[in-house]
Amino acid sequence: MDDVKIIEIKKSVFADNDEDADKLRKELKGKGVYLLNLMSSPGAGKTTTLIGTLKRIQDQVRVAVMEADIDSDVDAVKIQKATGIPTIQLHTGGMCHLDAEMTRQGLDNVALADVDLVILENVGNLVCPAEFDTGAVRNAMILSVPEGDDKPLKYPLMFSVCDLVLVNKVDVMPYFDFDLDKCREYVRMRNPKARIIPICAKTGEGLDDFADWLLAEVKSWKQD
Amino acid sequence: MHELGIVFYIIRDVKKAALENAVEHVSAVVMNIGEVSTVVPELLTDCWRWAADKEPLLKGCVLKVNTIPALTHCDGCGAEYETVRYGKTCPHCNSENTWLLQGREVEIKEIEAT
Predict the structure, then answer these.
(1) Which of A24, A50, A53, A157 is close enough to A135 for a disulfide, judged by CB 3.0 to 4.6 Å?
(2) In Å, how far is B2's CA from the nearest CA of chain A?
(3) Which pLDDT tens digit goes with each residue over A2-26?
(4) Nearest to A46 by CA among A213, A170, A201, A178
(5) 8 Å CB contact between B50 and B31
(6) Where are the domains of chain A?
(7) How far apart are CA A199 and CA A204, in angstroms?
(8) Rounded to whole angstroms, how far apart are CA atoms A151 and A184?
């Protein structure tokens, strides 16, 4: 054992990805393209929320969508059919998240000169996607009422990296013990700056607010 | 199951370090894993065994995990306390104005080459 050589590294395994992500963000800035990373648990309503929101904004900005899933293309087909918006399906090959490199590979298939906004629908998962910066300008997440108002306590990292929290399925609130004020308080404990918008993707409630937020974000990203 | 993804990141970084230091075989990789990093050490070492043995550089290489305890600092009274036991609320003064001092690390501390 005396000829063992110890080489000190002391480096976070996320450091390379963080660098890649910063680089990608700068490139997108140069091209005037805004990338939103949308996350949630499986079944929180990402695809339905997207369809409703895309219909509200597609006359005002040029949008493309990237769907990331472990397998299948059901979400991409659904979005493309409902909105006619160009949608790309990314397969993570078993991985539970997207990193900056995978996001870049996806963007290579988008005609970036013809879009102002790309929405990335990340893999449904509250743990892993929070660890990996995709290079997006902002992170948004959807928390649905049936999941419970205590999710920010259980998945602190996800809520601390999100700029926007959409609380979805508010129409079924009376049937669940979901306290919106408590939820707001729990989100603020993790992230005082996060904006919270209650929505119902099915009825369209709150989607105008989300659409307005998105349009304002894209506008300021392209102006600065 | 992000442990497998993390293992691929570790392998990439270790390969880079081995190349830079002209190392032909790595016998151990020492990781610092924070208690609240969301990485499960047992899963990490399982995934490691599966993936590392596919690389000649890392055949039989052991992944050693140092657990970094999670500590929270309280801005209310200046105390430091165990995060896992008390969470976000300071046990000394009940303040919620607290922040994580350490415990989210997922880093490669060092590698042992033979």
Answers:
(1) A24
(2) 6
(3) 578 999 999 999 999 999 999 999 9
(4) A201
(5) no
(6) 15-223
(7) 7
(8) 11
Spacing of C-alpha A8 from chain mean position: 36
Q: What is the pLDDT of residue B1?
A: 60
What residue of A is the nearest CA neighbor of B8?
A: A13
Q: Residues A94-105: pLDDT tens digits?
A: 777 889 999 999
Phi/psi of residue A193, nearest 5 degrees: -90, -10
Strands (E) in chain A, as ranges, are 5-12, 34-40, 63-69, 87-91, 117-121, 138-144, 164-168, 195-198
Asked if the Cβ–Cβ distance from A6 to B112 is below 8 Å, we say: yes
Residue type, A160: S
| pLDDT tens digits, A145-179 | 999 999 998 888 899 999 999 999 999 999 999 99
Residue type, A114: D
Element spanning B99, H or E: strand B98-102
The answer, yes or no, to whether residue A115 has pLDDT greater than 90, is: yes
Judge whether B35 is closer than 8 Å to chain A, CB to CB: no
Q: Are B36 and A13 a contacting pair, CB within 8 Å?
A: no
Which residues of chain A neighbour B2 with C-beta distances below 8 Å?
95-97, 127-128, 131
- 8 Å CB contact between B80 and B101: yes
Contacts of A131 in chain B (CB under 8 A): 2, 38, 106
Domain at B2-69+104-113, CATH from 3.40.50.300, 3.30.2320.50, 3.40.50.10260, 3.30.565.10? 3.30.2320.50
B106 confidence band (pLDDT: 50, 70, 90): very high
Handedness of CA A124, A130, A135, A138 (dihedral sign): positive
Does residue A186 sit in helix, strand or coil? helix
CA atoms within 13 A on the CB side of B28: 13
Tell me which fold the domain A15-223 belongs to.
Rossmann fold (3.40.50)
User: Residue A35 pairs with which residues in a beta bridge?
Assistant: A118
Single-letter amino acid code for the residue at A124: G
Give the single-character DSSP code of B46.
H
Write down the residue that tokens 């046990």 correspond to. Answer: B91
